[in-house]
Amino acid sequence: MRRAAIPCAVGALAALLLAATATQERERLGPLTRSRAVKLTRPDAPPPDPTNRVADDPRAARLGQFLFFDTRLSSTGKVSCATCHDPALAFADGKSLSEGVGRAGRNAPTALDAAHARWLFWDGRADSLWSQAVGPLENDDEMGGSRVGLARLVATDARVNAAYTALFGPPPDAADARRFPPHAKPDPWAPGDEGAREPSAAAKAWLAMDAQDRRAIDTLAANAGKAIAAYERRLTSRGSPFDRYLDALKKDDAAAEAEYPETAQRGLALFLGQAGCRSCHGGPFFTDGEFHNIGVPALDKTPPKDPGRFLGIERLRNDPFNAHGAFSDDREGERAQRIGALAQPPESWATFRTPSLRNVARTAPYMHQGQFAALKDVLHYYSTLEGTVPVGHHGETVIRALNLTEEQQADLVAFLETLSDPPLPAELTTAPRSPLLEPERAKR
């Protein structure tokens, strides 16, 4: 009997030691850091979008997913939304500058959790997911297509036509070549465009169309964008090690807390405390949603030439697909009112949107032109500010060298790596066989 009691005593001692270790792990963060961490819990669903009446319609999500992977929308027939927002790369593309039919001037942000963003694109020139979706379709460096080409696809593909009609009513007959030229779209707006430059051939063809036909095509483009947005609203993953740690904190589960790596705990404490990262990367998605210039040189090591948010504000105001425009389903709502409240101060020149840090370890390279190849490079920059260029105007007054040790930088990287979620299910990351949802699923 005494011999049998020895293993029991050893087990009890081990349990006590485990509990003591777990308590020490909890105490490392401190009560203030723990309370700050709990506030980083993600909401269960993205906020509603009243500007898009089909935002949460499963039928729209299926049509949008079909269009998201459809290369027929591009001028070459080889590029889709998924080219630059590859599910295998956390819906980014792993390139410094995104590449479609050409090479763009900026990095492709992840589409994961994009439904939670207040502004879209690096310069914030879109104020909804659906208005953002229209831009790359016609951008000559991205998909190089046109809204008339999109309308022709909807008109001529029987299944796409049926899916679209079920949601929005019959599309225009864009297959009628007498009314709809093969490649027609308005030129992208830029300051001084009014009569200052010769319209492109596609723009001339667009302007030659009947005004009523142009309006019908614009409506279809907006509706297609709304369908794509309905799909993208589902691109929210769950279950990162950090989320599991937050659950343990909320349940006061010391043993579960102890499973979170010690290096990540130290990194979290730095992130929320000494390093001051939360001043720009706060909240459940680790972003303030605002625009900053942190002195990073352009990809070619020269001073910034991209006006960023400064021009983005003008483009947003002039975008017919913005929340206040004729194609919004909530023209006087909160999103629409934001546009009227926007200022365009000189300080907004060369500022860019703070990206979310969710899944950041899976979305290299970093910054708006992918200037940094790895997270350790980003931490080194913030620690030393090596290579900083004059930002012009006022820049960021809060940026200062953090002077972090190599160990502290490694701890921060360890923490950021725990923000990665498991991959989304295959039913969300592949092209569906049909744009039509099965009847039983459409009822959900």
Round the Cα radius of gyration to an integer and report it: 25 Å
Broad shape: globular
Strand line-up of the largest beta sheet: 1-2
Overall helicity: 40-55%
Low-pLDDT stretches? 1-11, 13-27
Overall structural class, as computed from helix and strand content, comes to mainly alpha
Give the percentage of residues in beta strands: under 5%
CATH C-level class of the domain at 58-237 and 424-442: Mainly Alpha
Q: Can you name the CATH architecture of the domain at 58-237 and 424-442?
A: Orthogonal Bundle
Helical run tally:
18
Please write the string of helix (H) and strand (E) elements.
Answer: HHHHHHHHHHHHEHHEHHHH
- Annotated CATH homologous superfamily of the domain at 58-237 and 424-442: Cytochrome c-like domain
Give the rounded overall mean pLDDT: 91
* Total beta strand runs: 2
Largest sheet: 2 strands, antiparallel
CATH fold descriptor of the domain at 58-237 and 424-442? Cytochrome Bc1 Complex, Chain D, domain 2
- Quote the distance from N terminus to C terminus: 62 Å
